[in-house]
Fold:
Amino acid sequence: MIKIEFLFPELVTLYGETGNLKYLSKCLPEARIVTTQHGQRPAFVDGSVDFVYIGSMIDNYLGIAIRGLKPYRYDLERYINSGKIFLATGNALDLFGQYIDWGNQEVKGLGIFDFYSKGNMDERHNSWFLGEFEDMKIVANRSTFIREYGGDSEQFIRLLKGEGMNSRCRFDGVRRYNFYATSLLGPLLVMNPPFTQYLLDLLGDGHTLWEKDTAMEAYNNRILAVSAL
Amino acid sequence: MKFRFYIALWVGKLISWFYTIRGRKQDDFPGSVIHKICPDFLQYVHKPKYTIAVTGTNGKTVVTSLLAQCMQGMGYKVAYNDWGANLRSGHCILMARSVNWRGRPCVNAVILEIDEETAYENLSALQPDCLVVTNICRDSLERNAHPFCNRDRIQKAIDSLEHTKIVLNADDPISCFMDVPEDRVRYFAIDGKPGSQPEWSNLHDFTICPNCFSQPKYLYSHYLHFGKVQCPVCGLQSPDPDYEIVHSDMLTKQITVREKSGIELTYTIRSSTIFNTFNYLTAIACLRTLGFNAEQLTMHIRSCRIPQSRETHENAGGIDLYTVMCKGQAGSSASVVFRQLAKINKPMELILLMNETYEHEEQPEAVSWLYDTDFELLSRQNIRRIVVAGPVYADYHLRLRLAGIPESRIVCFRDYSDITDNMTFDGIREIYILHEVHRITQAHQLRDAIRKKLGGGRS
Structure:
């Protein structure tokens, strides 16, 4: 049975990102979703998980999430190196970098990737993003107080339209094996059915998209709209 | 500075007069001119006897309107922007209209709706007599979406106030724990059923204690994150209210408010929904905080109506036809409306006009809020059809399917004009048009077209 771990649901409450899990559970009706709250031992530590998801949270909570994962940093690296799936969306990306610089305060990250983040609560960045990953178009929003710098050696999505992790960056997110972290947010898996199918294929043969036609229609309409910007 | 102020006032008044005779009174352009000429206009303009500011995520416009109606009923001359205009240019034109050409107040009270995102710059300049914070919920993606960001902005605004009395919602755990001077704050609340817990929702805005990050406990819950909370670890608890609804009868629409002094007063209101009950209570708490006579208030609150832009109702050809404002892009407002609809057992049809409005209709629209919104509440059998239209119709379609709504009950159109052409009314007793803030005209036009099709006149 496929096991999906949802990390810190009490912190990850924003931008409709639970839609990712709703959609996954429709595509994988036999899968079991387990939740881990901060302060609890994550299920991925035991290696019994096939897919880990963490999404956006209130920026003040990033430190709590980092503290929750720090004791399991090496287990997390082992999990990533084993090739199992990990997806982080929105500002959850910032957990995995070197540090988050808030100007008057620096929060040390998990240090798994070599990028760093700069945050400013007075400057919100909102934009649409169109990119490409393995010949698939990825389309989503970004809405954040944080921008990321560096991380060039492990790029995730190549920029086609919009902005990358910062205004000069030509990509978004980081990838290592099947660890995918992106600053794009929202119900990314619902909005990008080809990428979801790609992840489903990684979980084994025979998994198909739920309501594929409708999902693809919405996706194609969105790509057209964002391309025309 | 005085010179600039008067130039700004006169130019603003002149443009405003010109706009008014051209039928464009509800345009805050003159306000932006005033601000351009005199950036400190709000600071220097003479304030009338009462300056009341209303901020928060939901309910600002309704509370502003209730306050204005009530004060007008009591004989006060009140200035307020009945069309919203809750940014600086709207405040500038409102304040300019509240003084004469010599800059002297020509009204007794000004009621300003303040956008929470820009609360600091406006409130610090205005220094109102009373600031009301209705509640804080998550807002749209483009407006920072997470509620604690808005809370921090309002907190910063409160920190800048020197003498303002502050009225807070004790049943909103996001705003009630803000740091406010004890002698200047009053709280309001609705007594809840002891032990009631938050109902299922996709929205979870208060999940950890702001003090110690433990899981808080609800002593009672109203809806969404609203209720009385206590942290079992650090002991943080919602403040005791100064104005509390201790009894409400939704049939007679009467509420009994107990004040901290012990007196109990019964008010008749004109809505039976929980969120509008909060709106009425907010207005009562504000006016009592400012020292208005309680007996007089009970007499005048009963004639205060919820603004027509929020909801309309008529019967056409035997079908009840409603238009209800339902903010898009932020799941909290829509979810509250859906929860209310889910309590109605009559066969009904819903038409969703909740898309964001853009200059170009085809501009991409963020759809993440659809997954914050409790569409699952619409899966009840008595909701016979849900009609959606607009550029992101396929996203609505997928969301409704994910919410467990059968394909046979979902009708999607790319063009809004297709809605009326494809209406069927078999077995339907009620039609609800749920519309976004900026789609009032479109919703009313659709309602009129449906009425025509039903062969009904206004009733």
Q: What stands out?
A: The mean pLDDT of chain A is 96. DSSP finds six helices and 13 strands in chain A.
